[in-house]
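Dear colleague,

Following up on Tuesday's group meeting, I ran the structure prediction for the three-component complex that the binding team flagged. I've pasted the input sequences exactly as they went in, so you can double-check that nothing got truncated or mislabelled along the way. The structure tokens for the whole assembly follow below. Feel free to forward this to whoever is handling the docking comparison.

Inputs:
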Amino acid sequence: MTQTEPERTVRPDALQRPFTPGDPGNDPELETYPETVHGPVPLELSDRRTAEFVEEWRNASYNCYSSGHKFCREVCPVMQVTRNESWTPTAFHANVVAMEKGELEVADIAADYVNCTQCGACELRCPNTLFTGDFYRFRTRTVDVVKAVRALAVESGVHQPNWRTWNARTDDRTHEPVLGETEISQENVRNWAEGLDIPIGGETVLFVDCEAAFYRTAVPRAVAQILQRAGYEFGLMGEQWCCGGPAAEMGYVDQARRFARHNLDNWRATGTKRVLVLDPHDYISFTEDYPKYFGAEFDIEVVLVVEVLADLLAQGKLTPTVPVNRTITYHDPCRLNKRKGIWEEPRQVLRSIPGLTFHDVDRVTQWSYCSGGGGGLPVEKPELTAAISERRLGHAAELGVDTLVSACPWSERPLSEAGDKRDIDVIDIHEIVAESLGIEVGGSRGAVGDRRCGGCAK
Amino acid sequence: MSYRYSDEHAPPAPQRASEVAVTTHEHVFEVDPRLMERWVLQQTFPNWDTLRIMHARHDHLDWMHAHFAQKTITGSDLIAEIENEA
Amino acid sequence: MWGLREVTALERPPTDLIDRVVERLAGVLRPDQILTAKTDRYNRARVPAPFPVHRWRERVPDLAVLPESTEEVAAVVAIANELKCPVVPRDGGTGLTDGAVPLRGGIVVDVKRMNQIHELDLENRTVTVGTGINMLKLNEVLGKHGLIYPDDPASYPCSLVGGRIGTSGWSLIGARYGHTRDLVLSFDLVLPTGEILHVGDGIGRQISKSSSGYQLKHLFMGHQGTLGIATKATLKLYPKPEAELSPFWAFDDYDAAYRFTGALARAGVATFAGAVLFDEWKVAYLRRDDEAYIPQPADVRALTCAVLYGWEDEVRVGGKRLFRIAKEHGARYLGDEISEGDWAARHDRYATPLHGRTKSGQVVPMSWHCEDAAVNYTRVPAVTKAWHEIVADLRRKTDVFDDWGMFAYTSADTGVDYLTEIDVGIWEQRLDDDAWAMWVRAKRDIAAAALAHGGSISACHGSCREGEVDLVPRELGRGFDVMLGVKRMLDPNNIMNPGKYLLDLAYQGGDLAARLAELRGEA
């Protein structure tokens, strides 16, 4: 029978003392122990694409799977409204491990990966990022894993119906179909700038995302007029196409690269050295996707407008003087706060506006906030986007505010719809700055915004 | 405050911090890269990402203190009080 | 000892039974609450504790359900009991003894949708919640009222109240506020037959101490889901502390840190919420990747930290008492930055796979496995020595295992006993059947060492995993026979989390007394 305590008659050796592995001063005996474990027999996966995918993502996935502590779960916007563990960052990594073991195939898993806004909360909150990501230069990459699985699905012929249509229409019109059944055309991409007298091309161009260029046109109009007020020189792109980011997010990688190539070539053609970006989603495309596609060839400087505004305000080149009598809170756009760590500048900008009562919620609490508007979720599962936005507006309502200020055009449509139910306006940070500078912005704040706030008078 | 590929992929030269670690950016320790050559290879890590993580960690730690208590009392404060009383 | 594996060999409900279960469930749940896809099932088979990945499929349930009320849970369990289909409760799925892991397939009852705050009673200082709520999220709400629910496990940002009940959880600040069993006043529980039982003192929900009748609350906590599913709980609330103090001190060696830790715990300071002893292996381990310890001089070999919570005036007075004790013990204060940062990081530093190293120092992704025991203060050094030797022996054979050092945490305010844990890195990518067998033997040895020193196999996680579970009848003695009797009475069809804690013995014929004697080493 079993002994209560094991009998051990091992001679003293290097393993009986504490040591830090890798220290060159360690006992050389440590190198002499035999390895007696063979490890599981690796499985030969018959599908070449899956095998390559697994090879690329296996360590990243084990880095989640083998920790298994799931600190991502309660910050995940989809999880918070569905409470379904199949749609968590943990599951998204575990599925890859299951594929490595031949237990699951891409067709089994593809539909689950719709349930992600690519907000980045999970990968930031993960201790493998937050506590050791910088140390090892190896962090949790849920967003990349989700994009890679979606790409593998598309390559394998497993499509989500609405994404397929969305990307086909984008491919056809070079912009996303943000106006629903109303088709968008390349000729109209600069219509938002009507009457603003902005040149084409030049060293610095302002890139306007599809949602802002065609739907929430008050945002680019506000940005352009604020910059003009400050004497900041910029032009519009010669021939702007969609940044390609949404296609990349939904797995249509070839299309995304083609669009990126077009935009980079077009910047070159107009001698452009610097791209101003007002939309956080574009900012991600240009600072993460384009560098991956082009490497060092991508020598364009990318500048976020809200950071420029904070700078211009600090330098006294802009001085908001018209009081804006609203009680606000600020919605940290996920792609700024979580994915880029940009949260101070928007608050500096808001604090410069007279008349505002600002009930701020700190950036860490907001890691678990989201509009649900990203990552293609509203295209495929609008009901989840709506639920996530409703939850976000619930947090705002607890503060007793009349206005939620965002800095992301893609968040503003779902947030506005949720805000309408609670009698809360959703306004873009650039719109509110323009108002305080006495600018008659013009353009549209979208259907809900125009009805509630009367748009920005033309 | 702006992104340039060439800036992002040129981290500060590493300084040795211990037998198994180095320092690069201020307040950032990194593993001695020779320990990640066999089983797990390091990822491409632009400077912004390293700094984002380091700053977020500090913000998170502040948040966690505030989550459990309204304020923190420092040990150095108490040591000073004890010495004054002695 | 390996004969027991036959008892727990995989049996699954036949497909036609599952079809009937699904059909009947459709009468009590909406379609979106019944999950049968492969990913739904694979992702409810796991907890953080390592297991050979190539055997994953053995633990996959046949379906999962997402009930939204006590009544829905009761309806599901009643159907399962009628059709004799296994049921496995799953809350956060963060436990380290496989409580939420299906061993016989069946239905996973995932309670995460039951995360409502039903009632906040500011006068009596209680909150009634669905058991699917997470403590951090709950405290975000309570904080607005100046209150806190101080149940603080390492998994605080993600574990759920129901899982804390099912495992009878241990809290890092339990020396000040008590552990889960002290903080949960009462709860609703769905019994294995589908009946609903209210567990706790008094006829209402909010009594903290009664002496009326049998005290059933402890019986229905820590059963690892074998006696039912907690669905709604009433919790005791405290004022959110005004002040926190969390000093860390360094020592030249383990013995000095050990003596100091004991002195702190015995000091009788009312705001004292806990002390933690880091042994020399732990400090060597922290030098791998922890920014606080990489730059420390070589004579920092062992650490003690303490934490105090309360009103600022109380914490200051208590804190000064501890600092005076520190002076007497030659403890070297590590400074405000490390002290505050390390305590705030307490939930985040465990389960990082890249802590793992081969003996030569290469980084490998390892699963964190924490083996814990409850050990009296005077026995902590001996257990520490024995456990390191067990893990060293694993490392002599393979790089699949790594020693991440040991902690000893105060469990109570008097310093009587310590949650003693050894953190073992396990390289799951390389974990084959041979390595798993080595690990199971090591787990058994680890548990045996705790018992040999008069302790308990677990202070914190439970003890129903392969390896350790064989020793439970020895630890509990006649109490294990009572466990079998209770299980048989409450779960006549053995549907509730079958295969755990050797409870199958309650349903088997033959000479039970002989089997138990064998397990206890009395044969």
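Chain C has five domains: 4-110, 117-239, 243-344, 353-469, 473-519.

Cheers,
M.
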